[in-house]
Amino acid sequence: PFLRLLEAQLQDQRREHEEEIEALQNQVDAMKEEMEKQQQAFLQTLQLSPEAQVEFGLQQEITRLTNENLDLKELLEKLEKNEKKLKKQLKIYMKKVQDFEAYQAMVPEERRQHERNRQVAVQRKEKDFQGMLEYYKEDEPLLIRNLIT
């Protein structure tokens, strides 16, 4: 059993490593593709006139800035959602603090009265559930015999 467990763990690790290697290989392939595209774009810009090179460079920078702007907008939306959530939580906690402060601000006599009211309620509940069966003392042996059988 122990060897099977170790063998299973080894196979899991091997599978994880193979998946990691595959993911890294995919990243390398994607980077090679990107590099080839950039090389082709660079060679094309070298063949252009100086004015066209400037135009192409500006076009590339505009594209880069547009993509960066979209990423920043997405991040801003996420932060705004988080801010709204935190504000709601803050309101809830502020209400709890106000309730607690109002309780603390009660005159000690009022607080004692409030606590007595709670204790009385608890005592009443306990009194309601003191027994489930009512019987006469002389019927007790018969009741016990019936319970046993």
Distance between the termini: 51 Å
Mean pLDDT: 84
- From the helix content, strand content and strand pairing, which structural class follows? mainly alpha
- Tell me the series of helices and strands, N- to C-terminal: HHHH
Sheet with most strands = none
The general outline is elongated
Q: How many beta-strand segments?
A: 0
- Poorly predicted sequence stretches spanning 5 or more consecutive residues: 120-125
The portion of residues forming beta strands comes to under 5%
The radius of gyration is 39 Å
Number of helices: 4
Helical amount: over 70%
Give keywords.
149 residues, mainly alpha, MYO5B protein, coiled coil
Short structural description:
The protein is 89% helix and 0% strand.
Describe this entry's structure for a reader:
There is one protein chain. The protein is mainly α. 89% of the residues lie in helices and 0% in strands. It is built from four helices and no strands. The longest helix has 56 residues, at 50-105. This is MYO5B protein. Keywords: Coiled coil. Residues 3-96 form a coiled coil. It comes from Anseranas semipalmata.
